[in-house]
Amino acid sequence: MDFRTYQVEALRTDVSAAAGKDGRDALIVPMLGLAGEAGQLLSEYKKHLRDGDAHKLFKERVCEELGDLLWYLANVASKFDLNLDDVARSNLAKAQERWDTANNPLHFWAPLKNPFEPVCVIQSGLGFCRERMMRGQPGFWNLDERVCG
Q1: Residue 11 contacts by C-beta under 8 Å, 6 or more apart in sequence?
Q2: Which one, of 72, 86, 83, lies nearest residue 37 by Cα?
Q3: Cα(80)–Cα(83) distance, rounded to whole angstroms?
Q4: Lowest mean pLDDT among 21-25, 35-39, 88-92
Q5: Are 29 and 57 in contact (CB under 8 A)?
Q6: In Å, what is the CA distance from 127 to each residue of 64, 95, 103, 119?
Q7: 3-state secondary structure (DSSP) of residue 122
Q8: Cα separation of 81 and 20, whole Å?
Q9: Is the dihedral of CA 20, 21, 25, 31 positive or negative?
Q10: pLDDT for 55-69, tens place per residue?
């Protein structure tokens, strides 16, 4: 099943009081639903961390919560007149551009001569880039130099 088909079918199951309305009233239920289901997913993960293998239904519960999140996501997309296929395609393109997945990016921190000088080496479509960082405000690093080639 593709996202658009799911979105159309899911919208048919929207029986909330806000179904078919416009504006803020139409959004409140699915937006709160997203937050609530995200909380449920976190709760299942907490139980898994706490109980380990004793939480035998973990995978099934995660599947159920992800499905509920998908339903609310499709509902919100519909309220904004967005095609979920387009949303997924656009997001994937953004992620691929950001991380240049086609060129198998490699990200890691490695010291130069000074072990206290962090350097980020990034493989991208441009080859390797070395970024030298310098200390900024306490707890932060600032980009000092970027060399690509």
Answers
A1: 74, 75, 78
A2: 72
A3: 9
A4: 21-25
A5: no
A6: 42, 18, 9, 16
A7: strand
A8: 13
A9: positive
A10: 888 889 999 999 999
Share of the chain above pLDDT 70, in %: 60
Distance CA 80, CA 124 (A): 35
3-state secondary structure of 139: coil
Ranges assigned E (strand) in the chain: 107-111, 118-124, 127-135, 141-148
- Among 68, 80, 70, CA closest to 27: 80
Contacts with 30 (C-beta within 8 Å, 6 or more apart), sequence order: 16, 72, 75, 76, 79
Distance CA 122, CA 108 (A): 7
Average pLDDT over residues 50-79: 92
Assign 55 to helix, strand or coil: coil
Q: Which two tokens stand for residue 29?
A: 């239920």
Residue 112 has pLDDT above 60, yes or no: no
